[in-house]
Model the fold of this input.
Amino acid sequence: MSDPSERLHNLQDILIDEMIRRIQTGEATAADLSAARQMLKDNGVQVQVTEESPFKTLVDTLPFEDEADQIKLAK
Done:
């Protein structure tokens, strides 16, 4: 039997590949997108939003109401 740590890494790779496939094919449900977002968050994945970043478009569409909650652009 293989090392449990290796098996967990393999499982994570399979899950990531499946999430990517569903998102790229348009099959992803809201639950799939939420799971992908949570996996990124749980693994400390962060992004800097700049004027040139595709995330800028996403940020511009989010309905922020509190000035303190707004995302600041990286310089």
